[in-house]
């Protein structure tokens, strides 16, 4: 199982060289439903794949299902409304919990109460995250009970086509875009990527491969300022939280803030994926393309390979394997 | 540290007496006003007896007299203009008994409003926000014109409904109700602003309904039929016809000047029905004692309403975004209302600008206001 995570591809394009380095023999499945209505504008991406790209058209298929399957469309709308409401309540609770952590962290402590108070405050944030995840699980269970995806003829037909295309492909690339849309299409069409099929993904695509998708944007003008648990991904790379555009979207220089973020997710490595970065997962070797890193995960391995950059519990950027 | 450079007009004065070609070259080169650091020099050229700059900047004398340079037909006045300022003005002249007022002939930059146009003086550091200008990359939303039969107003009320780009019945949208809607579209480029802010992911895709008044001075200061139309007719109708998020949090009233009063008073009449307000230079005039407010009869109902609200302020929405220009007379009432609103528990974000009571000021503040009230989906997008 080769899985390669790349940095954003807009300015430093590494996907072509990366896929060529895999020496794949056959078509490459393209998943770019995160581009939403621009999904079909894939000529540039297909060009990087030397014309071997086959678009799975997941967004287009989703529109088709919403149009043809009224029962599913109603259930999908209801699910979205309920998830939005859940996220609104989660946001209120999360922001309050994060504000408490920051207040505790900045309070003077003369009698060594501070560290314990801080740990407890971070625990409270984790509890809010866990509450959201549990509620979301309930929501999925509920929607599965009322509108089982397996019973939709339209979805079944599309699943069949997608499976057939994937069976004929030698690899998969997953592009960035809107991670919510991307995850939704992957979930509805139950896109299963065989373990032996190499995958190259970036930005939202990289996030979708993990088991914990966390939304973040420290520079967003308004709204919830803390990173938010959003959903589960495909789980191909468990234990990793992908942070694309980390330099641009995170206040990496604020180590206290980064430390709190890392401590919220102690079972995960917060992996930085900036321009030029490539995280490669079959042989634990770091390959450098252009001026960035390649992070490659070996067969079955989910630990970050040497050279990959992540946010340590102390809030500083650490490099796997560095002394 | 080098000494500040002398003003251009003072360098010109060294060449007295001025001949016509010298003045021609000067005004061609500099135009008017001349911005030098935090100073603005206004010029007027003509055979007149007196000339003034007319403006409504609180703190500067109005009229601001220009002085003739030597014996020439060139007049000038220099005033301080802090960084980031933007001022609308006109030139007034007297020739014998004849007075005339017009836009600055030496300045092509104009701002428009329902009252006509004015010349614009932009200080160093002022920039039109790029999201206020047409962006060919931004997918345009659509405006749909409608006539709504209103029992409350006893008439057909025209509205324009903005549907964002990629509007989809399978989505749900928040609702923004805009007082003085036609003016916001025409003079504050609000469709362009919405298209751009949504395209940039700064603002969530939303439905906006632009509502023009018929008799503004009657309908906007605390008028029960107007509030009933908005809350009991317009919103339910739109909820029936459009995929809106049917919760108070997703409903916002906005307006400027008297439109700000209309927004607040509608929320006060229907507390808890709207989640937020966007108030721009709201005419929140009040008196602490007596009733001598100095605003004229049009402000009587406003003052009555604001005085009553200040006696027993209550939380009528969750959040208020307030803006006001520091050069307008309403700055003091607006500043005074911020703690009153906050004391009720409403969350208030208050922004001041170095500008006046005008549409471009209100346009320039829309980015902050709309992004705060309707945060966009930036967190979802990782290209």
UniProtKB/TrEMBL annotation, chain A:
The keyword Protease applies. Keywords: Hydrolase, Protease, Serine protease. GO terms for biological process: proteolysis. This is Peptidase S51-like protein. It comes from Humibacillus xanthopallidus. Coiled coil: none annotated. It comes from the Bacteria. Pfam families: Peptidase_S51 (PF03575). Belongs to the peptidase S51 family. InterPro entries: Class_I_gatase-like (IPR029062), Peptidase_S51 (IPR005320). One of its GO terms (molecular function) is serine-type peptidase activity.
TrEMBL record, chain B:
Pfam families: Esterase. It comes from the Bacteria. PANTHER family: ENTEROCHELIN ESTERASE-RELATED (PTHR48098), IRON(III) ENTEROBACTIN ESTERASE (PTHR48098:SF3). This is Enterochelin esterase family protein.
């Amino acid at each position: 199982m080769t899985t390669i995570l790349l940095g954003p591809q807009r300015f430093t394009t590494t996907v072509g060289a990366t896929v060529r380095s895999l020496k794949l023999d056959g078509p490459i499945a393209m998943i770019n439903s995160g581009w939403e209505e621009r999904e079909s504008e894939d000529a540039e991406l297909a060009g990087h794949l030397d014309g071997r790209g086959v678009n799975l058209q997941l967004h287009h298929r989703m529109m088709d299902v919403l149009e043809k399957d009224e029962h599913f469309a109603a259930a999908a709308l209801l699910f979205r409304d309920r998830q939005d409401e859940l996220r609104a309540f989660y946001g209120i609770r999360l922001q309050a919990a994060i504000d408490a952590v920051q207040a505790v962290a900045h309070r003077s402590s003369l009698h060594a109460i501070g560290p314990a108070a801080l740990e407890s405050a971070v625990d409270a944030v984790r509890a809010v995250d866990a509450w959201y995840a549990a509620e979301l699980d309930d929501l999925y269970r509920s929607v599965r009970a009322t509108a089982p995806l397996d019973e939709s003829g339209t979805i079944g037909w599309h699943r069949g086509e997608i499976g057939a295309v994937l069976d004929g492909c030698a690899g998969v690339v997953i592009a960035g875009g809107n991670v919510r849309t991307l995850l939704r299409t992957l979930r509805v069409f139950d896109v299963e990527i065989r373990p032996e099929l190499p995958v190259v993904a970036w930005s939202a695509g990289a996030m979708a491969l993990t088991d914990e998708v966390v939304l973040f944007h420290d520079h967003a003008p308004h709204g919830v300022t803390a990173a938010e648990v959003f959903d589960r991904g495909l789980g191909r790379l468990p234990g990793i939280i992908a942070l694309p555009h980390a330099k641009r979207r995170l206040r990496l220089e604020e180590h206290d803030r980064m430390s709190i973020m890392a401590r919220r997710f102690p079972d995960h490595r917060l992996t930085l994926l900036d321009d030029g970065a490539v995280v490669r997962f079959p042989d634990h070797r770091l390959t450098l393309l252009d001026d960035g890193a390649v992070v490659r995960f070996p067969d079955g391995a989910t630990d970050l390979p040497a050279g990959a950059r992540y946010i340590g519990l102390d809030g500083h950027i650490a490099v796997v394997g560095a002394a | 540290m080098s000494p500040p450079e002398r003003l251009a007009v003072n360098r010109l004065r060294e060449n007295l007496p001025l001949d016509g070609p010298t003045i021609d070259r000067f005004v061609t080169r500099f135009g008017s006003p001349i911005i030098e650091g935090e100073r603005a020099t206004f010029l007027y050229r003509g055979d007149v007896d007196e000339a003034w700059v007319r403006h409504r900047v609180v703190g500067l004398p109005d009229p601001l007299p220009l002085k003739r340079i030597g014996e020439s037909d060139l007049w000038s006045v220099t005033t301080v203009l802090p960084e980031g300022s933007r001022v609308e003005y006109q030139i007034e002249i007297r020739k014998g008994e004849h007075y005339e007022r017009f836009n600055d002939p030496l300045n092509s930059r104009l701002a428009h409003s329902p009252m006509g146009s004015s010349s614009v003086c932009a200080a160093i550091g002022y920039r039109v926000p790029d999201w206020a200008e047409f962006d060919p990359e931004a997918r345009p939303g659509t405006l749909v014109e409608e006539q709504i039969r209103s029992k409350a107003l006893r008439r057909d009320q025209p509205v324009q409904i903005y549907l964002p780009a990629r509007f989809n019945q399978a989505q749900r949208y928040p609702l923004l109700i805009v007082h003085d809607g036609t003016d916001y579209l025409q003079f504050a480029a609000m469709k362009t602003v919405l298209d751009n802010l949504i395209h940039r992911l700064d603002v969530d895709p939303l439905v906006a309904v632009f509502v023009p008044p018929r008799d503004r001075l009657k309908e906007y200061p605390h008028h029960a039929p107007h509030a009933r139309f908005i809350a009991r007719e317009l919103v339910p109708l739109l909820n029936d016809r459009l995929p809106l998020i049917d919760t108070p949090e997703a409903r916002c009233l906005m307006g400027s000047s008297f439109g700000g009063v209309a927004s607040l008073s509608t929320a006060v009449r229907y507390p808890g029905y709207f989640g937020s307000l966007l108030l721009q230079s709201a005419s929140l005039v009040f008196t602490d004692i007596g009733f001598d407010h100095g605003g004229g009869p049009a402000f009587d109902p406003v003052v009555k309403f604001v005085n009553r609200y200040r006696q027993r302020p209550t939380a009528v929405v969750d959040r208020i975004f307030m803006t006001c220009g520091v050069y307008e007379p309403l700055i003091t009432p607006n500043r005074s209302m911020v703690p009153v609103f906050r004391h009720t528990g409403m969350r208030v974000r208050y922004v001041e600008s170095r500008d006046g009571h005008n549409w471009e000021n209100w346009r320039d503040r829309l980015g902050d206001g709309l992004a705060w009230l309707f945060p966009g989906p930036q967190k979802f997008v990782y290209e």
